[in-house]
Amino acid sequence: MTSADSASRRRVVIIGAGFGGLSAAKALAGTSFDVTVIDRHNYHLFQPLLYQVATAGLSPSDIASPIRSIVRDEENISVVLANVSGIDVARHEVLAEGRRIGFDHLIIATGAQHAYFGHDEWAAHAPGLKTIDDATYLRRRILLAFEKAETETDPDERRRLLNFVVVGGGPTGVEMAGAIAELAKRALAKDFRAIDPRAARVILVEAGPRLLTPFDPSLSDAAKRSLEQLGVEVRLRAGVTNCDERGVSIGSERIESRTVMWAAGVMASPAGQWLGAETDRAGRVKVGPDLSVPGHPDIFVIGDAALALGADGQPLPGIAPVAKQQGWYVAALIKARSRGETPPPFRYRDYGILATIGRKRAVMQAGRLKLRGFIAWVIWCVAHIYFLIGFRNRLAVALNWVWNYVTFQRGTRLITGISGSRVEDMPMPVDAPAADKRPMRGAA
Amino acid sequence: MTSADSASRRRVVIIGAGFGGLSAAKALAGTSFDVTVIDRHNYHLFQPLLYQVATAGLSPSDIASPIRSIVRDEENISVVLANVSGIDVARHEVLAEGRRIGFDHLIIATGAQHAYFGHDEWAAHAPGLKTIDDATYLRRRILLAFEKAETETDPDERRRLLNFVVVGGGPTGVEMAGAIAELAKRALAKDFRAIDPRAARVILVEAGPRLLTPFDPSLSDAAKRSLEQLGVEVRLRAGVTNCDERGVSIGSERIESRTVMWAAGVMASPAGQWLGAETDRAGRVKVGPDLSVPGHPDIFVIGDAALALGADGQPLPGIAPVAKQQGWYVAALIKARSRGETPPPFRYRDYGILATIGRKRAVMQAGRLKLRGFIAWVIWCVAHIYFLIGFRNRLAVALNWVWNYVTFQRGTRLITGISGSRVEDMPMPVDAPAADKRPMRGAA
Description:
Structural class of chain A: alpha/beta
Low-confidence stretches of chain A: 1-6, 432-444
Strand order of the largest sheet of chain A: 5-2-1-9-21-20
Mean pLDDT of chain A: 87
Strand content of chain A: 15-25%
Oligomer: homodimer
């Protein structure tokens, strides 16, 4: 992008290369717009499979592709690896690591991160799952718990090490609980001498009355039964009231555990604070029917960072298909406007929702169609492999799954970033939420 | 291993699950010995391919397997994940994270780490390559250098970012230099807009008069020519006299670089200090013809940690085949002694040495046979895939190589452990040599 170009061509800046940002970028490939994609990581992450990295089923590179590779042939798209710290709305500039990146149109697709509802001190004891580093950190924690239990002589501590608590009964929590149970009861079953990994307890704790709230109650019940068949203990109407390094409290009840995983809530990125725009309690920016920020027709917020309303007046869910369709929509809108046209408002097309529970089990809902069990699991596998970006990743994931399915093994059981068994030496992921929650307002 | 067992069965403790330690353990599988393998990592690492992880060609899980998986079916072998801090020779106990692990026979296979010849302060500026964490750290450094160059406006700093210096012309240095050149000139060639990665300089610096000293001079010359065809600048008789965050000095000459990699020397693990045994300058424990430590017939040192002499009276090289054969030998010796036999001294069988330079190029020497070019490269590929432990890894590596070969792509170009582009925020690997170089003498 030379200065001669930028003088003559309209500049679109996209913050975030998740499902929303990347679909917008690809829809603008080959146009006359100068597109800049800014992300704080050099890879696009297929987040729906992140729990598989955390439970040693897949490698990080199976579900992540370098952003530069994805857009390498699109000469009008450049990629900047940087942390965005603010937006100068008046001057139409994004602030990123000391640089100012000017835009004519801005698409904010910065996603969400896990949130602790005012209890940020729980973050150290109950890590969440949003990035590759979160996933390898959780993988270390889970695998080290078994290693420490193997040499632990105090029976109370050993029990604590073999208790795994997952907080939150949404898709991520359900998938994590099922995967940890399979890891303990299958992949690790014969690997230890002093402990029996099959004796590990996996406890899924949900504050609400059922799992997988977006699904039909009959599928929530099916998911609960499937988890219980895998050996997971499901606790409904169980709100966590405290969380420390030795477990969680649910009111007066105490569950001892050295490995607590947080999948209970998300908070949108600080985009609302960057813009000084109105947000809901989860930090999502309220956007208009064309996904622009009220009063800023050239600034759009999409995906998990946005609060957009569906045809029924309800907020659209924070899932990949919504983000992707919004990315396509905003790209089309920007192109249409440059031709002087005004397209209709964004409308989400719901092709259904899917959640997996473990080997051979899933639930699926599309309109009136409700599926569960093996057939839903096959659809889940096909859909996820199909949507993984890049032929190589699809092939690698398919091979890994076939391998894991046939052998019950997990090939990526590596404890990295640490030597020996001292959990205390483990560094937390650098993207831990606390650091990200201090957004800088764009300089005036 | 219950106490009833250990009273009746002889205990073999193996420190280190590298090539030497693991081959000893496997040779003792199914015997009446109680075998305990202690390692500070939970995985066995196929170190000869570590440079491929550092240059984004392979994933960590492609070249590492959990030790527990490898020996899961051997009921007389248990695995302990722990840092060893010393050996109580008098009481026949290994000290590991507060525990005392008793032995009747001890096999020390703790390997070597990179060494800076009295300049430990260079470690921060010129990281080495011995562990998975070293490799992912180097991968981050290399990939981030290109990312920073893309947005850098100062031409001097940009040049410094696109200079890559590899110190040391042994196999690791040659392989790294070739792989970085291929990464820059092929895989990344089209991925940037402001810089041309093909303009990156890769400089291989060797203090001695030729590359790959263990090989015949004609093969050293062939390796040099191959590297130069790849675009690597080879500097012989160039001893590094200083190293800081902006480059290296060779006497009065200065090479500016933000990415310096150290492959110039190794230092054996602190086993000699644990034992109070005689070592050479590189810290290797001098062992007898049966690989036992003089005065301690039940304590053996093998692999890179040992100084063993070949039939020609010269020290055996620090390579995987030596370590493996020594592991088999010591296991056989322990078994023979338990039957009252005394086997002949250890004798190394040399099947040849191999080093690769890049896509389609390698050198190989076996006795009088000297090979170079494509045929040596094919042999190198087959040998390395064959020796990779575990069918799954072999298949994954083969597929990755086919993929990289056909497409020139690198699928694992992930910058993890950091967000944004600030190299200063990068944590050094936890196993950095400085921490390991303070061995504790076994308590009396």
